[in-house]
Amino acid sequence: MTTETPLVLSQCDACHSRFLPSDTPCPKCGSTRISAFPVPAHGRSIAATELSTPAPGWTAPHRLALVEVADGVRVLAIVDGELPAAGAAVEVRLAGPVYRTCAAERGASERGEGESPRARRRGPSFEPPR
Amino acid sequence: MSVHVASLGIGRFGKRPEGLVDLAAEAAGAALEGIGRRPVDLLVAGTMLGHGVHGREPFLPRLAARLSLEAASGLRAESTSATGAMAFQLAVDALETGRFERALVVAAEKMTDRSTAEVTGELASALHPSEAAHGATMPALAAIVTQRYLERHDLPVSAIDAVSVHARARAAHNPNAMFRTPVTAAEVAASRPVATPLRLLHCSPIADGAVAVVVERGTGPATVLGMGQGFETMRIVDRSDLTTFAATRVAAQRAYEAARLTRKELGVVELHDAFASFPLIHLEDIGVCGPGGAAEWFAKGWVAPDGRLPVNPSGGLIGRGHPIAATGLCGIAEVAAQLRGEAGARTLPKRPKVGLAHAVGGLASHNFVTILGAAGP
To answer: What residues contact B325, with CB distance under 8 A and at least 6 apart?
Structure first.
């Protein structure tokens, strides 16, 4: 993608959580007082999968990625092109009712280029400590 | 008031020529025979898809008529793949009100009369609509969970191959199982990809099947000691941690508290292995081991019939087959079978006194834990 349209997240006026999609009440506290919160349209792939048997209406191979677009805000997105590695920089856009994602054209250097893939994947933890 | 499992009717799972009501009636008949056809005053029936020859089956009234139970009261349960566990817990709760003496619980699913694509689409209705809208399927989201789990604990995919090998080895001893032949780790690793990294032999198969149990007031070797259920957000994008299922942890905590016992007293567990990575997560969520510790239990055989804690001696969903609604009740019935000494060729070397059955609804958005055992003094 050459031009970047920001993603518009929702921010809860009550508990300040940020989330998607924007047409739902706050998943944390249930408040319906929501404000728009734009963020740059790129993120990191957390995990991605290629389906050999997609749901009816979709063609194989169908690829999906779970992408973190802001701190703690994730989207499920249809992958255009190759499956991103865990931790890889991706771009995200909203296309009708679905998110689509593809490899980022730039930004690899910000995300630990030069480290081994394993080390890069390990990077920041996606999960809180338990 | 105590309630116990008085009789079992576990049907054969797999591709069956019979329809939904026929399958259910067969399992119910076996359970009713087991109590000498004594009267039942409550029928609790569960099915998710409700496939009938002419579309959706009016399952509860048709089954009641078929079993000549029109004088009984009836309830119908549905919570996707946890339906059977929900039906069981509903029946126990109903008996505990004192209004009923004895309940027949039946859970059944007919699946193999539809194409895999059609069934996959129907099962995606158990996912959040916003995620299903992306073409997500149950295996797709399970694959994402699997990747996160393996990566977080630095485990190779072979860690889940071992789970499938265990399931199929156990199912070889279960005459009701869909798959009676064991598989090797190499065969699991060479099976066709379904949703990377999950392969065919990591996934529980589509199957027809039915299970019935009779529960009644009183005590026995399979008395209900504790029950619990828990919810978690349906959307996986809203879950901060995909390597554990909060719905299981809540359900297990409630069941342990009600039973006033800990996981150390468990002698057998049946876990919902819809996908091979899931029992690793479940074993941790029910407190048997810490995060990342479960793979060692499978690798070292601690889950074997003669191991520290036998897991899924029935073969689990991967070995038995996964007729959606029947599965949750089958786990409970299999635990009861071990406690009652009615497990036939899959009988554990040491008869357990307490067992736990676990069921997952949706992508772990509504989970159930049921603990059975000999009633205390």
So the answer is: B46, B47, B48, B49, B78, B81, B83, B84, B87, B107, B108, B109
Q: Which helix (H) or strand (E) holds B206?
A: none
Cα separation, B266 vs B143, whole angstroms? 30
Domains and CATH numbers, chain B: 3-114+207-215 (3.40.47.10)
Residue in A18, A26, A44, A66 to test binding to B, most B beta-carbons within 10 Å: A66
CB < 8 Å to A54, chain B: 135, 137
Of B129, B172, B161, nearest to B315 by C-alpha is: B172
- Name the nearest CA neighbour of A42 among A83, A64, A73: A73
Contact B197, B143 (CB under 8 A): yes
For residue range A6-50, what is the model confidence (pLDDT) as tens digits?
899 999 999 999 988 777 788 889 999 999 999 999 999 999 999
Q: Report the candidate in B50, B57, B113, B117 with the shortest Cα–Cα distance to residue B80.
A: B50
Complex ipTM:
0.92
Give the integer Cα–Cα distance in Å for A109 and A112. Answer: 6
**Does the pLDDT value for residue A109 go beyond 80?**
no
Residues 22-51 of chain A whose Cβ lies under 8 A from any Cβ of chain B: 27, 46-51
Peptide bond before B205: cis, by omega within 30 degrees of 0?
Answer: no
Whether residue A61 has a cis bond before it, omega within 30° of 0: yes
For each of the domains in chain A, give its residue range(s) and CATH number, in order of start.
40-122 (2.40.50.840)
CA distances from A73 to A69, A70, B12, B356 (A): 6, 5, 45, 36
Over chain B (377 residues), the average pLDDT of each successive run of 10 is 96 98 98 97 97 89 96 97 98 97 98 90 89 94 98 98 98 98 98 97 98 98 98 92 98 98 97 98 98 98 98 98 98 98 98 98 97 85
d(CA B209, CA B46): 12
Does the beta carbon of B33 lie under 8 angstroms from any beta carbon of chain A?
A: no
Strand A7-12 versus strand A18-19 pairing type: antiparallel
- Written as one string, the DSSP assignment of B311-329 is B-TT-HHHHH---HHHHHH
The pTM score is 0.93
Do A59 and A51 meet the contact criterion of CB atoms below 8 Å apart? no
Q: Are strands B198-199 and B193-195 parallel, antiparallel or unpaired?
A: antiparallel
Other CB atoms within 10 A of residue B159 CB: 21
CB proximity B125 to A under 8 Å: no
Minimal CA–CA distance to B77: which of B39, B109, B116, B54? B109
pLDDT of residue A106: 59
